[in-house]
# Entry
Amino acid sequence: MVGKITKIVSNTYFVTAEDIIYDCSARGKMKTEEIKPVVRR
# Structure
């Protein structure tokens, strides 16, 4: 499944995939390597 981050609030990422919005949190590689995704309009 491939999704697109549409909104970031605190440490919660809202991802849209297949017309469904999922709320996710940073884990694993994103957290240990301090990767900070950017939401663009």
Remarks:
- The chain has one domain: 1-41.
- Strands lie at 4-9, 12-17, 20-25.
- The chain is about 10% helix and 45% strand.
- The longest helix spans residues 29-32.
